[in-house]
Amino acid sequence: MAKKEATIEDRLKALYDLQVIDSTIDKIRTVRGELPLEVQDLEDEVEGLSLRLDKLTSEIEDLSTEISNKKNGITDANNLIKKYEEQQNKVRNNREFDAITKEIEFQNLEIQLAEKRIKEGEFLLTSKNEKLAEAKEYLDGRKVDLANKQKELEEITSETSSEEEKLVKKSEKAAKIIDDRLLTAYNRTRGNARNGLAVVTVQRDSCGGCFNKIPPQRQMDIKNHKKVLVCEHCGRILVDSAFDPNYLEPTEEEKKPKRRTTRKKKAETAK
Length: 271
Hints:
There is one protein chain. This protein is mainly alpha-helical. The protein has helices at 2-5, 8-32, 35-88, 94-175, 180-192, 216-224, 252-255, 263-270, and strands at residues 199-203, 206-207, 229-230, 237-239. The protein folds into 2 domains: 1-23 and 179-271, no CATH class; 33-175, Helix Hairpins (Orthogonal Bundle), CATH 1.10.287.1490. Strands 2-1-4-3 form a 4-stranded mixed β-sheet. The radius of gyration is 41 Å and the shape is rod-shaped.
């Protein structure tokens, strides 16, 4: 209901107020700068390093278990060899003796293979333990960096969050006076502008956004507040400089066009 009752002047004033509020919010967020992104990147990196550390730890545990199993296998093979050697003393024919001899040879081969696997496993285990130690050290360093960045962000946020919250509420209140179509145009222009300015005042006969000259008749239309006008060059919404309490009208002297000094006059002045 409020949107329908608002005059063009009310809407333009609300647009300008909205721009001032949003620009102030932009400044607050600029103070925080890239800190939130840096914190997010560090959090992602720490999470990735932690997963890598867990994977390395799991691989070391599996490798240790495998080496232990191989050592147990060697013990079992030696026990079998002793058993087969005792059986050899009790054989009744050459066929049984040869069969047991083959079993003993097989167990000896199993021992040799297990010893080889143990040697390889221990070498790999040493390498993985070194990588684990390096990964832990690096992760601890990144955790310290993250804690420092989080503290820095927290300090800046605590200083500005209250003010930003109030400004966001003011921004929402100012937006209620503006019709949806105009608000959409404001947000689109603001998103495309590098400095976030979608609404600018006319300053010294020029657009306050791109600084291109505005024809006198168009300036009169802007001052009359009868319709919403945009800059023909940059597309920003133009409002009367009277909306800006800090704007100072140029003096009569400043309004006078500057006369060009000819080379002849310059030479005479120099003499």
